[in-house]
Write a structure and sequence with these properties.
The protein is mostly helical. Helices cover 59% and strands 0% of the residues.
């Protein structure tokens, strides 16, 4: 679990699903795809508004801040 301040949870499940699918499409293993899903959903809930989704550079930065080294080592 990520320990981040929650601003808005609208769309968190959709963001998680999108992150998982994007990870699998990028060739990540299941564990890494789940980590990517957590990162996308975590990024989303830590910002206001229902349409806050990260681009890959924002996701890399967020993953690094959260210590998700398995994502960074996978080359996302």
């Amino acid at each position: 679990a990520l320990r981040i301040p929650v601003v808005n949870t609208t769309g968190a499940g959709d963001a998680f699903n999108a992150g998982f699918i994007a990870g699998k499409l990028r060739g990540l293993g299941t564990d890494q795809a789940v980590a990517m899903a957590h990162a996308v959903a975590g990024y989303k809930i830590s910002r206001g508004g229902a349409r806050q989704t990260p681009d890959m550079e924002e996701l890399r930065t967020f993953a690094g801040e959260q210590g998700l080294t398995e994502l960074l080592s996978a080359g996302i």
